[in-house]
Structure formats: structure tokens, C-alpha cells
């Protein structure tokens, strides 16, 4: 196993000039020895390009790849000692399951008793023990892909095992089991694993560290909790979570009597400390708050935004409420107790997740949305202004 360092960029076209010419914009990042990583992002963001650069299938157009401090940029996947699992099974149909699993070890001249022990262990982990003597040809697509996973995991001496959307062909129920199994296997085998997916549930279940990518950029590397609580980039807030983070336009004004925080044109109590300074410097910003952390309160409650309920959905395990916060330009916020879906349809739709046992608000009513808490994040153009829990005062705006 190895620590993997990337300091590179990649463009498929010669002579790249602008950001959009790059599949991977200049980046520096490390995969720690023995870590379980997911590369997560929408189609075309550069996940496979990064994986292929790590494996050696692709040479970066700029920069280098190092394994344990040694420059391996010019080395092939074999010389880098990388195992790979692809979307579709890569196995020998004429061999038995045991022979397929043993193949990468036989190729390396591993002793037969060692091969037997390792194949037995991997088969047990993947629940293939009962099929070891069956020919692969007669097996289902699921079982074949499990063999591919096993072949990727069977060697103990690999620098890393790379997975490119390996559960695509797997039946949804088994997919759920296999994700958890892969995590368990990682804990037992302690291999460095890098896993490409566009599915956040898959990434969050499997990986200790998730690399969130968009448009050729790795915008955050962090644990599931860090990506949820402190998205460092608006894209992470939007992409992680169900539904994603709410964003509201804000500005911070320094008045003689103190700082004034305006969100969607409504006055709120400003945060304190370093964040207040950052907001003042930024002037304009976006306030980010997850649907789980918006409190529904009485309209007119101190520090709450007035909004109109425009949708109430029963999602089964929770209520999803959508409330429209009018912007200053739309005129005054809806009157207290107003019952019609009033005013202009413009503004910002804020999603609120309520527990299933809560009583949801009535469609068309005016509500208060408490968006400021220790979970609230603030963003400049895209990046988070300060990566720490904001200190929010409890008292009313002066
Ligand atoms: N061989 C290639 N030649 C030219 N452009 C390519 C090539 N492979 C990928 N690209 C482009 O590079 C960008 C990143 O592609 P990449 O396949 O790495 O993304 P991805 O995140 O893995 O997407 P997907 O999930 O759809 O596989 C895309 O704009 C893609 O069109």
C-alpha cells in the first residue's frame, strides 16, 4: 500500500487556454496509506480522469503522481502495482470462481497454500464461499461482478485498489449490502481504496474521506459529517444532502449603531467574532442553511425570516415544506397571519425538513423561518467565508 500524492492538471486537448479546456484543473491532493476514498461528482466532472491518472492508464498533461514520495508518472499500472475493478465484470468465464480469484495471485507466484487461504478469506467476505467450485459462465451478473471485486481485493501487496462505479450492474438490494460489505472489508484488509461514483449515498456509505468534484476541480475532501456540516464550497452544499442546502442572498452593513445583517432584504441578528469581520469585508454573500436546520417558528418571531408556505410534501419518513421568502425588491414581506399565496412568485424557495410526527404548516400560510444557528454557513462567490461554527447572538436586532 502507498500514500499517493497528486500535483498535476490534465487537458485532453493540446494547448489548453481556459478552465473549460481542462478535464482536471491544477490540483494538489493526497490519498493517505490505507484510507478509503470516494471520488464523487456529476457526470463529466473528471472522476474517471483522476482515477486513470492514479492507475497509470493515463499520463497527466502537466505535473506528477507520486507513490510514497517516488515519482511514478511514467510507470504503467502493472509497475505501479495497482488493482482495478471496472463497471462491468472482467473475469474468465471458463474458470471456476476459485480459479478466477486465485488468478492475480498465481500470476505473482504466490505459494499455493497462501493462495488457498487468501481466496477462502475473500470468498467468505463476499459471500462466494458456496460457489467456489462453480464455473463463472453460469453465474448471474451480480455474482460475476462480486468475483471482479474479489479479484481486485485478493492481493495483499497492491499500492491501491481502484473502483470505477463497480456497482452499476448490481441489483439495487444487493448494491446496498455490497456497499456496507466493502466498508467492512476495508476495515479488515486495510487496503488503500479509491472509489469513483456519482451516487452520494454510495460515497457516504463506503468512504472515510470523500473528494467532491465539479467541473474538473476537487472542491472539498472530507468526511461525510464535514461535507454535511461545513460545506466549503456552494457546490458541496447543493450536491450533498436530500434535498441540498438552501442559499439566500445576504449583505452586511456597518452602521454607526453596529453591524446589520440583511438576508433576502430582511434584518437578522448578525453573527459575532471573526465571521462578522469576514461578512463586513465581503459586503454581499450567500447564507447557506440545510433543510434539517431551518426551524419553523411564528411569523414575526425575533430573528426569523417571513415566508409563505408554497408546498407541503409527505416524503414518508419526514415532511418536506417549501416556503417562499420574498426578496426586498418584491416589496414588503407577507403580512402576519396572511393566508393566501401572496405577492410575486419570485424570491427564494427555502426547503425545511420536519420530522414525520410534526404537524406541518398549512399551504399558503405565512411562517417564520429561523435560519441562523451554529449550523449556518456563509459563502462568498462560491467558497465558504469562514470554516467554523458561527457565534450567533440570541437577542433581537437593535
Ligand atoms: N478520451 C477523452 N478525450 C477527450 N475528452 C475526454 C476524454 N475522456 C473524458 N473526456 C472529457 O473530460 C471531462 C471529464 O471526463 P471524465 O470521464 O473524467 O468525467 P467523469 O466525472 O468520470 O464522468 P462520468 O461519470 O460520466 O464517467 C469531460 O468533459 C469528458 O468529456
UniProtKB/TrEMBL annotation:
Molecular function GO labels: ATP binding
Gene3D superfamilies the UniProt entry points to: 2.40.50.100, P-loop containing nucleotide triphosphate hydrolases
ABC transporter domain location: 6-240
Family annotation (SMART domains): AAA
Domain of life of the organism encoding this protein: Bacteria
UniProt xrefs under InterPro entries: AAA+_ATPase (IPR003593), ABC_transporter-like_ATP-bd (IPR003439), ABC_transpr_FbpC (IPR015853), ABC_transpr_MalK/UgpC-like (IPR047641), Mo/tungstate-bd_C_term_dom (IPR008995), OB_MalK-like (IPR040582), P-loop_NTPase (IPR027417)
Positions of region (Disordered): 329-348
Classification via PANTHER family: ABC TRANSPORTER ATP-BINDING PROTEIN (PTHR43875:SF14), MALTODEXTRIN IMPORT ATP-BINDING PROTEIN MSMX (PTHR43875)
Name recorded for this polypeptide: ABC transporter ATP-binding protein
Organism expressing this protein natively: Roseateles amylovorans
Amino acid at each position: 500500500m502507498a500514500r499517493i500524492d497528486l500535483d498535476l492538471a490534465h487537458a485532453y486537448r493540446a494547448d489548453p487556454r481556459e478552465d473549460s479546456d481542462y478535464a482536471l484543473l491544477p490540483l494538489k491532493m493526497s490519498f493517505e496509506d490505507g484510507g478509503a476514498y470516494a471520488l464523487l461528482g456529476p457526470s463529466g466532472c473528471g472522476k474517471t480522469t483522476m482515477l486513470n491518472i492514479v492507475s497509470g492508464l493515463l499520463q497527466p498533461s502537466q505535473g506528477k503522481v507520486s507513490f510514497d514520495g517516488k515519482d511514478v508518472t511514467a510507470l504503467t499500472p502493472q509497475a505501479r502495482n495497482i488493482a482495478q475493478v471496472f463497471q462491468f465484470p472482467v473475469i474468465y468465464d471458463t474458470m471456476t470462481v476459485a480459479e478466477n480469484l486465485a488468478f492475480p495471485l498465481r500470476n505473482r507466484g504466490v505459494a499455493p497454500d497462501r493462495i488457498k487461504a487468501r481466496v477462502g478469506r475473500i470468498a467468505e467476505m463476499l459471500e462466494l464461499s458456496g460457489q467456489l467450485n462453480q464455473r463463472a459462465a453460469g453465474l448471474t451478473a451480480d455474482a460475476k461482478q462480486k468475483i471482479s471485486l474479489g479479484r481486485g481485493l485478493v492481493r495483499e501487496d497492491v499500492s491501491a485498489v481502484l473502483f470505477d462505479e463497480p456497482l452499476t450492474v448490481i441489483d439495487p438490494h444487493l448494491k446496498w449490502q455490497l456497499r456496507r460489505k466493502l466498508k467492512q472489508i476495508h476495515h479488515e484488509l486495510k487496503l488503500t481504496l479509491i472509489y469513483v461514483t456519482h451516487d452520494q449515498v454510495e460515497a457516504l456509505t463506503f468512504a472515510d474521506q470523500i473528494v467532491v468534484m465539479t467541473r474538473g476541480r476537487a472542491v472539498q475532501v472530507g468526511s461525510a459529517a464535514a461535507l454535511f456540516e461545513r460545506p466549503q464550497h456552494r457546490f458541496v452544499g447543493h450536491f450533498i444532502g436530500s434535498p441540498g442546502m438552501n442559499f439566500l442572498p445576504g449583505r452586511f452593513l456597518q452602521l454607526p449603531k453596529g453591524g446589520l445583517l440583511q438576508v433576502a432584504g430582511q434584518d437578522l441578528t448578525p453573527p459575532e467574532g471573526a465571521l462578522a469581520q469576514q461578512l463586513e469585508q465581503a459586503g454581499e454573500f450567500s447564507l447557506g442553511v440545510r433543510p434539517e436546520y431551518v426551524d419553523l417558528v411564528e411569523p414575526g418571531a425575533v430573528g426569523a425570516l417571513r415566508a409563505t408556505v408554497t408546498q407541503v410534501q409527505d416524503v414518508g419518513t419526514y415532511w418536506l415544506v417549501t416556503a417562499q421568502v420574498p426578496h426586498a425588491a418584491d416589496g414588503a414581506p407577507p403580512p402576519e397571519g396572511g393566508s393566501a399565496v401572496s405577492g410575486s412568485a419570485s424570491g427564494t424557495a427555502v426547503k425545511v425538513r420536519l420530522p414525520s410526527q410534526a404537524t406541518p404548516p398549512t399551504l399558503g400560510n405565512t411562517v417564520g423561518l429561523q435560519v441562523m444557528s451554529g449550523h449556518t454557513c456563509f459563502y462568498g462567490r462560491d467558497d465558504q467565508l469562514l470554516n467554523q461554527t458561527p457565534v450567533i447572538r440570541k437577542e433581537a436586532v437593535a
